[in-house]
Amino acid sequence: xxxxxxxxxxxFIIASISGTTAGGRGNTTAATPILPxxxxxxxxxxxxxxxxxxxxKGAGGGGGPKSFVVEGRVYCDPCRIKFPTKIxxxxxxxxxxxxxxxxxxxxxxxxxxxxxxxxxxxxxITASGDHEEEICDVRxxxxxxxxxxxxxxAESTSRVSLTDKNGVRGKTRTANPxxxxxxxxxxxxxxxxxxxxLGVGY
Length: 202
What we know:
Layout: H1 2-26, H2 45-58, E1 67-77, E2 89-90, E3 95-101, E4 109-116, E5 122-128, E6 135-140, E7 150-151, E8 157-160, E9 172-174, E10 178-181, H3 189-195
Parallel strand pairs: 1-9, 1-10
Antiparallel strand pairs: 1-2, 1-5, 3-4, 3-6, 6-8, 7-10
């Protein structure tokens, strides 16, 4: 009896193990991998792009000293009215001085450069640096034309701005015409001034 009971016990144990294994195999499924969510865009991404654009925008800017070109005309006033008319003539080979100073009445200049008028009385002077804190003018002192050599006073000087920090764009600065007067008034001046409405009392 003991032997039969033992055999039966082993039989039930083996059957139980086989059933458990079969059931486990029947319910086994392949595991589906779970992918992590895609990372959200970095909040600083826009800033990086802006920085790159800013850097590219500044590239090739030169980095050298600033410069400005002052252009103008030297003329002779035969009517002694201190502004150009249709009978005004150009004065070539005239020395033109560009000077800057700290204050209006300061005689000491912080920067000077010279140029000479061409056969058409035109000049072009290149000035180096930004002179935001200075007062700059172009002026003439001596005429090469002996028949037209009298200095016009204030009209022999023209103020120019040599900075790009005051709203004036570009590197070229155009000065007002400057020059000299004849000692005698040209007879044609009366008619010319009448044409422009300035002949009364002339």
